C-alpha cells in the first residue's frame, strides 16, 4: 500500500512540473534571487555541481559493478 501511495505522489509531482512554463520558471528564479541573494546562489550552484558530479561518479561505479556481476 505504501509503495502505491509513494508512486502516486511522485506521479503528481512530475505532472505538476510538466505544467510549468517559461514564465513561471522566470518568476521562481527572481523570487529565489531576491530571497537568497546572488552570492549565496553562486555557492549553492557550486555545491549543486559538485553533488551532480559525485552522483554521476557513483552511478558509473554502480553500473560497472552491475556489469561485472552479470
Number of domains: 2
Classification by helices and strands: mainly alpha
Average pLDDT figure: 84
Spatial extent as radius of gyration: 18 Å
How many strand units?
A: 0
Percent helix, as a range, is: over 70%
Order of helices and strands: HHH
Low-confidence stretches: none
Question: Could you describe the 3D structure shown?
Answer:
It is a single chain. The chain has 2 domains: 1-36; 38-70. Helix 2 packs across helix 3 (38-69). The protein has helices at residues 2-18, 22-36, 38-69. Helices cover 91% and strands 0% of the residues. The model has no long low-confidence stretch (mean pLDDT 84). It contains 3 helices and no strands. It has 70 residues and is mainly alpha-helical.
Which key terms come to mind for this protein?
70 residues, mainly alpha, 2 domains, 91% helix, flat
Give a brief rundown of this model.
It is flat, with a radius of gyration of 18 Å. It is built from three helices and no strands.
Give the helices and strands, then pairings:
Layout (H helix, E strand, L loop, with lengths): L1 H17 L3 H15 L1 H32 L1
Helix pairs in contact: 2-3
Amino acid at each position: 500500500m505504501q509503495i502505491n501511495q509513494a508512486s502516486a505522489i511522485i506521479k503528481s509531482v512530475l505532472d505538476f512540473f510538466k505544467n510549468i512554463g517559461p514564465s513561471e520558471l522566470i518568476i521562481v528564479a527572481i523570487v529565489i534571487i531576491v530571497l537568497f541573494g546572488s552570492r549565496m546562489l553562486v555557492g549553492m550552484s557550486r555545491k549543486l555541481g559538485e553533488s551532480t558530479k559525485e552522483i554521476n561518479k557513483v552511478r558509473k561505479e554502480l553500473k560497472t559493478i552491475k556489469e561485472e556481476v552479470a
